[in-house]
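Now produce a polypeptide, keeping tokens residue-aligned:
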Amino acid sequence: MRTLKSRGFTLVEVMMVVILIGILASIGIPTYKHSVEVAKCSQGMAVLASMRNAELDWFRENQVFSIDITGELEPQVAGSFADTIDWDFNTIAPAAGFDGNGNPTLTLTAIRLGGPHAAVGNDILTIDQLGIWGGSYPYDDPGAF
């Protein structure tokens, strides 16, 4: 007598695997997207920190902050601008002014060009001459610097 051997998977087994993959994807994809946004925020913060250092060097030499980011400061921060398609550092020029004591002030701004929060306006990072971070980007972590 010949016995039949079962081959392949049953429909229930295949459905269980599909459900398991769906559950793992629903957890993994948002985590991945969040990690990407945190990395892009770190990139923007690193470039702003580099620009701030270049501005401070410019100020030491010229006794005034530069308002031409791409012209005067780009040679010092060219490596930082190499892969910054996610941020726009030229839309808002540094706002040079004076505080109440007559000391020069500076605010550098980076605007995120895409991402999940760009449509609602939560896409701005700022840093001033003292190294104080600001803005409304939800993934910034100033403690990282």
Q: What stands out?
A: The mean pLDDT is 76. The chain has one domain: 13-139.
